[in-house]
Amino acid sequence: MKILVCMKQVPQKDAPLKLNEAGTWIREDVSYEVNEPDAFALEEALRQKEKHTGEVVVITAGPARASQVLREGLAKGADRAIHLEDNAFIGLDAHNTARAIAAVIKDEKFDLIFTGLQSDDYGYAQTGVILAEILGLPHATIIMQIEKNDAGIRVKRELEAGFFQFVDMPLPAVLTIQSGINKLRYATLIGIKQAKTKPMRKVTLAEVQSAMGDNLQKIEKLYVPVKSKKTEFLEGPAAEVARKLVDKLKNELRVI
Amino acid sequence: MDTILVIVEQREGKLNRVSWETIAAGQAIAAQTGWTLEAAVVGAGVSAIASDVAAKKLAKVYDIESPRLEPYTPDAFVHALKEFLGKHPAKLVLMPHTYQVRDFVPSLATALQTTAISDVIGVKYESGKLLFTRQMFQGKFVADVSFAGSGPCFVTFQNGSFRADKVEAGTGAAPVETVQVEIPDSVVRNKPQEVFKEAKQAVDLTQAEIIVSVGRGIKEQKNIELAKQLADALGGELAASRPICDNGWLPMDRQVGSSGQTVAPKLYLALGISGAIQHIVGMKGARSIVAINKDSEAPIFEIADYAVVGNLFDIVPPLIEEVKKAKG
User: Which among B119, B148, B206, B288 is most buried, taking Cβ atoms within 10 Å?
Assistant: First the structure.
C-alpha cells in the first residue's frame, strides 16, 4: 500500500503563547512539535506498510521550521518527504491547505491518505475531508482501526458518547485518524541516521499557487478569551492552599 | 430576503437534542439581522422530527427525504444537501459541531465552493457584518472570524454555546414541506455497519455528584492512585481526560469529553488537566469547577470557580488529609 500522511507542526502543548502586535496571530518564537493526532496517523501508516508492504510518504505545508516534523517522520520509518515550504502556508484556511496538498500529490496514486482528525492550532477538523472531496475520493473520519480486505478496507469510526461503527469502503480513500489508535514508536538511532539520506522534496508556493484561491474565512482578531466566570485563585504554601480549598468545598460549594 | 437555514441532526430517527441549541443560535442571529430563519431535517421517514421542530419560531421547515439517507453516509448527505441548497439558496447554514457534521460538512462546503466555519462558540453582528467567535490553540485564544465568500456560509456550533431552553416557540406550527431527493446507487461509496458500544459501561459518570478527574499532569500510571484516594475521601468518582484513557491508565468508560461522557456533577475537580476543547465540552456543565494545574495559562482556569496554580503532587496529599478531617 502506498500511503500519504499529512502532518502539521504546531506550538508545543504547554508552550506559553503570546499574541503578535497586530493581534492576528501568535508570535512565532515558541517551541513546536508534531500535531498529536498526526503522529498517530504516521504510526498507523508505518504499521500498515509493515503488514502489507508498500511506501509511506510524509507531507507538510509550512515554513522552514516545519521540516522538523518530516525529519522525525523519516527517522521513524517513512520513505520520503514532501515539504510545501513557505511562510504563507501558516495563514491558509483548511480549504487552501487541502488544495495546495492536492495539487502536489494528485498524480501520485496513493492507496490511502491519512490526516490527524484536527490540529491543535486552528482546530478546523476539515483539511482531510476537503482533500477527499477535491480528489474525488471516499473518506471516513475519526478512525480508530483499519483492516485491509479484498474489497478495500474496513475502518472503525469513533462516534460520540462511547459509540463506534465499522464502515467498509473502497480504496483509494482518505481517513482522518484519532489519537490513541495505536502506540507510538520512538525513532531509533539508526532511523535518525538513515533519515538524512532519504529524499525530501521541496515545493515552493509558486508551484501550487494556481491551484489555490483566496481564503474564504478570515481571522479579524485573535485575543485572550473574555472570562465569563469569576475565578478565585487560592495561593500560599501547599498545606494552606489545601485548607483554603476544603473550606470552599465545605462552606461555599457545600459538597463536603 | 436572506435566509438562515438550520439543519437539525437526527440519528436513527431520533432528534439529537443539541439541535435545539443550533435553533437558538439561528433565532439569535435572525433577531439581529432580520433574516428569515428556516430549518431542515435530513433522513428517511423523519417527518415526525420535522413536525417537532416546526413548533418553534421558524418561517418554514423542510423534511429532506430519501431511503438512501438511512443509515447516514457522507456521500448521501452531501448529495442531498447540495441538491437542496441549489434550489433553496441560503446565506447561512447552521449545524451543531457533532462528529456526524464534521464528517460531511467540509465535503459539502467544498462541493459548493464555499467554506465552513467550524466549532463556533458565539456570534456578533457588527456594522452589518457577522463575526463568528471560535477557539484556537486549544482554547488559549479565541478568534473573531468573518466569511469572505459569496455563500452559503456554513457554521457549526460547539456543544453548549447556546442554550436549548432559550428556543422560542412559534405562535403556530411552521409549514412543513417534504422534499424528495434522488440519490443514485453509485453515489454512496461507504457501507456503514451497525452502531455499537464497545463494552458495557461499569460506571455511569453522568450520575456522579462529585468527580475527581486526572489529565496529563498526573505523569505516570502509578500516580493515579493519589487521585483515587482524593476521590474516595470526597465520596466521588474518578474520571480522566482522553490521553489517560488512551494510555490505558484508566478504562475508556471513565473518559470525560467529546468522545467520552458528558457530565454535570456538583463538583468537578480537575487535576493536571489543561482543558483542551474536547475535554471542556464534556464537563463545562458542572455546577462548580476546581482546577489544580502547574501552568497558570491552562485554559481550564478560564472556566474554574476555584483555581490553584501549582504542583498537584504537593497539593493533593494535604488536600486528602484536610478532606478527611472536615468529614470527621
Answer: B119
Kindly report the CATH number that applies to the domain delimited by B3-187: 3.40.50.620
Provide, as residue numbers in chain A, all residues whose Cβ is less than 8 Å from the Cβ of B192. 165-168
Q: Where in chain B is the domain with CATH 3.40.50.620?
A: 3-187
| Alpha-carbon gap: A1 to the closest alpha carbon of chain B (Å) | 20
Rounded CA separation B295/B304 (Å): 14
Contact call for B209 and A141, based on CB within 8 A: no
Cell of A128: 482531510
Q: Do A13 and B194 touch (CB under 8 A)?
A: no
Q: CA-based angle B241:B244:B247, to the nearest 5?
A: 145
Please give the grid coordinates belonging to residue B48.
Answer: 415526525
User: Which residue intervals of chain B bear CATH 3.40.50.1220?
Assistant: 205-327
DSSP secondary structure letter of residue B78: H
Per-residue pLDDT band at B86 (split at 50, 70, 90): very high
The CATH number, out of the four listed (3.40.50.720, 2.40.50.140, 3.30.70.560, 3.40.50.1220), of the domain defined by the range B205-327 = 3.40.50.1220
The C-alpha atoms of residue B289 and residue B305 are separated, in whole angstroms, by: 5
What's the confidence (pLDDT) of residue B201?
66
Strand, coil or helix: what is A140?
strand
By C-alpha distance, the chain B residue nearest A166 is B193
* Block residue for cell numbers 478560564: B302
Alpha helix stretches (DSSP H) within A136-249: 189-195, 205-208, 238-247
Task: Closest CB to B191: pick one of A11, A168, A221.
Answer: A168
Q: Whose CA is closest to B269, among B221, B321, B222, B320?
A: B320
Distance (Å, whole) CA A157 – CA A140 = 7
Q: How far apart are CA B310 and CA B296, in angstroms?
A: 8
Q: What's the Cα-to-Cα distance from A95 to each of A100, A101, A115, A117, A192, rounded to whole Å?
A: 9, 10, 14, 15, 33
8 Å CB contact of A161 and B261: yes
pLDDT of amino acid A119: 95
- B321 vs A contacts (CB less than 8 Å): 242
The whole-number mean pLDDT for each consecutive block of 10 residues of chain A, a chain of 256 residues, reads 97 89 90 96 98 98 97 98 96 94 96 96 95 98 96 94 92 96 94 96 96 93 85 94 95 90
Written as nine digits, the cell of B234 is 470526597
Q: Is B114 on the interface with A (CB under 8 A)?
A: yes
Q: What is the DSSP letter of A100?
A: H
d(CA A140, CA B103): 7
| C-alpha span between B81 and B84 (Å, rounded) | 5
Exposure on the CB side of residue B43, measured as CA atoms within 13 A = 19
Enter the pTM of the model.
Answer: 0.88
Q: What is the CATH number of domain A2-211?
A: 3.40.50.620
| Beta pairing partners, A12 | none
* Backbone φ, ψ for residue A125 (5° rounding): 60, 40
Query: Measuring CA to CA, which residue among B276, B248, B244, B279 is closest to residue B262?
Result: B279
Q: How many residues does chain A have?
A: 256
- What interface predicted TM-score (ipTM) does this complex get? 0.91
Q: Nearest-CA distance from A9 to chain B in Å?
A: 12
